[in-house]
Amino acid sequence: MSTAHTHAPSLPALLQIEQLQVNYGSVQALAGISLTVQRGELVTLLGSNGAGKSTTLRAISRLVNATAGRILWHGADLAAVPAHRTLKRGIGHCPEGRRLLNRQSVAFNLELGAYLRRDREGIAADLERCYGLFPRLAERRQQQAGALSGGEQQMLAIARALMGQPELLMLDEPSLGLAPKLVTDVMTILAELHRSGLTILLVEQNAQAALEIADRGYVLEAGRLHLNGQASDLLRNPQLKAAYLGG
Fold it and tell me: 168 pairs with which residues across the strands?
């Protein structure tokens, strides 16, 4: 007996940006970009300073308002969602510059990442998971965040974002200012989180490091989408090599 195959409707992308425009006064920071992030992907957003990468993340987090276009989360428009509710929706944002409470302990900063949660046992378990991922933080859990090295502060910023149990983790320039060895360490941790199933949107100037761990990439130039494709293809792309990979 043959059975007809029924196809379930495809789920919408976890995150979908459609023709997004953002202006800062008379300056157009984003000029109609579109991109998608599927559940479980690691997607990187590349470009030079001022290309619009950070603005894209800030628009997704509702820290800046779109002038035009739509940001869809699970297929629903985020336009009416205030910034403080985006984390509740599952969008974690690890900003450029880390934004730690430097006079507070490592442990305090991590617990702050879980401020919206009420599941004490789950918080405790995630705290131990973060200490497992970042052993240096476990050693320094009672030290002030401001006393950590730059690499340790970046690890703390990532771990704090993870404490909110995000469905999507957005990271803004996590390798900025780090020594090459620490860049490798941070990228290795992000690759491990990706393998565990976490969806990641990674903004990076270090195109080589980002593309080596990403599934797909988008390249912004002056607020416009310039290139996109599979990470492996972008690594071989002559335009990208000339502009960002020293090729």
Answer: 91, 199
Residue 70 β-bridge partners? 18
Q: Which residues contact 149 (CB under 8 A, 6 or more apart)?
A: none
Tell me: the pLDDT tens digits for 10-46? 667 999 999 999 999 999 999 999 999 999 999 999 9
Cβ pair 142, 175 in contact under 8 A: no
Full-model pTM: 0.90
* Integer CA distances (angstroms), 106 to 66, 187, 193, 235, in order: 35, 21, 21, 37
- Write phi, then psi, for 30 (nearest 5 degrees): -130, 130
What mean pLDDT do residues 58-64 have? 94
Q: How many helices (H) and strands (E) are present in the chain, helices listed first?
A: 10, 10
Q: What is the dihedral of CA 94, 96, 102, 104, to 10 degrees?
A: -10
List beta partners, residue 177: none
Residue ranges of the chain that CATH labels 3.40.50.300: 12-90+168-247
Residues in CB range of 77: below 8 A, 6 or more apart: 70, 71
| C-alpha to C-alpha distance for 59 and 64, rounded to whole angstroms | 5
Measured CA to CA, the distance from residue 245 to residue 247 in angstroms comes to: 5
Distance from C-alpha of 167 to C-alpha of 15, rounded to nearest angstrom: 11
**Two structure tokens written together for 200:** 């990641």
pLDDT of 66: 94
Q: Domain 12-90+168-247, what fold?
A: Rossmann fold (3.40.50)
Per-residue pLDDT reduced to its tens digit, 183-194: 999 999 999 999
Strand order through the sheet with 76-77 = 27-37, 15-24, 68-73, 76-77
